[in-house]
Each structure stands twice: as structure tokens, then as C-alpha cells.
């Protein structure tokens, strides 16, 4: 097992096909971890459990993203008839398909929160022999690995009573009421209650759109990626614990497509974040506690006109000081 892990140490990807055979010897539970970050903070374990004859996927450590529901272990019974475990696994972005001895198939989705959750590691509760293992890269449809979510301690502002939300912070009005726009990339027509992209993939891994609407920067009828412009919040005084969070997806371009926290007095961009060339939302969290008491605003910029030249945003949770 050790030598197999040495060999796959540098194999990384979210578009991989893996074929392997394991002789479990004395091990009771054995399999492989996929979508694993370098330190194992995120990982998804696909394994066989000899004690009850089940083939399982363990997602308890699949994601540090707070929007992602953790569903734990799922699986089902399959009799290996004393044979070695033969795994055939497809990693296709958030989709994982795994076959055990071509008798049992598991399909699951994982929504990683870290850029580096791309590794593999053979795992067992006792040493096993990896008889064979082959890994191929598959062609990516589009996009890049998911962006990291840095979750600071005590990021929740719900304990504070002297704060309020930004006006229409989650676009629940179904339009851009309360926001300031420039150009045509962000218009009322971009605010939508559409839950899915590409037909059947949820925009939000939590499978809920906060407030029922979100700002989908790509709207083909309105002009698609070709539109440019900015969206700006009202100025506010930062309060609470100073921690801001929001959802973003769409194109990756930190210069032309980004969300920023801006200081009103000098226009300085204090925090900046882009997306991942993928439509699925990820929550970003900024620890702006150094700026509590300062007058700030949120700015969303789209100066991109090419492929994936749009941003989608929603649910700006900003602790705004109540005026005294
Ligand atoms: Ca919303
Ligand atoms: Ca654009």
C-alpha cells in the first residue's frame, strides 16, 4: 500500500479514471481516497467493508464549504465471493461514479472547497496489497478546480443585535432594488429564480437559492458574456465581527471579473475575489474585522467579453452597523 501511494503521490485531478485491484489480506475496510487535499482536510473515501459486505462512499470530510450538506456514508451490499476488490472509478468534476467488481455502482456528488483537493490515496485499516492500479486523465468539459473557502473562526454574525443587512442583500425582491449599476452587465433581467444550469445542476450546492432569487450574470437574451458593467452596493459602516460572506460563480479573471470590498473614502479595494469558470456557487468569506467602523461598499465588476465572461452573485451577508 505504501509503495502504491508513493507512485500516485503526484497524480492529481478532478477528471480521472481509476482502475485498481486490491488484495485486502487482513484488512476489514479498504479502498481509496479521492478529491483529497494535500493535508487531508478534504477527502472522499470509497471503500469496501468486509464486516458487513458493503461498498460505500464516505463524504464526511468531502468539503469544508459551509454551504455543502454533509451526508455522511452511503452504500450498499455486494458479495465479492472472496475475490479481490476491483475498483473502477470515474471522477468527473463534482460527480463520482464507482464500481465494485462490476457488480455494484455508487454515484455521488462532492463539492470541494479547496483548490488542491485533487489527490488520491490508497487507504485501509490494515496493510493491503495493491495488485494493479492505472489512472487516466479524462477531458475536462470546462473550468478549473473549485476555489478555496477560507472559513475563519466565528464567522457567523447572528449573535449581534446592533447590525442589519445590506438593502436587498440576497436579491429577494427579484430585481436590483437597492443596488447601483453602471453599464449593462447587471440589469434587473439578470435576477432570476432559475435553480439549475446546464439543465440539471444546482447553482447552489445547498440546493437552495437564498431569498429565492440570485443574480445570474449570464443571460443569453440580454446579451450573454458580451455585456460589461459594475454593480455596487450602498455605502455602509461595517459592524458586527467584520466578517462578510457571499456566493459567487462564473468566470475566473481576477482583473476583469471580480467582487471587491471597497473603502468609500479613497476607492481602495480591500478584498477581491473571482470565480472558477464554473456556474456552481461557492461561498467566500472575508475577515474584514480590521475595517469595522469604516465606510465601505461592495463592488461587482464584469469587464470581460469572452467565453465565461460573466459573474453570478448572491447572498451578500454583510454586518452593517445600525445608525445610532
Ligand atoms: Ca438570493
Ligand atoms: Ca461580460
From TrEMBL:
Q: Where is the Glycosyl hydrolase family 32 C-terminal domain?
A: 9-137
Coiled-coil stretches are: none
Name of the molecule in the record? GH32 C-terminal domain-containing protein
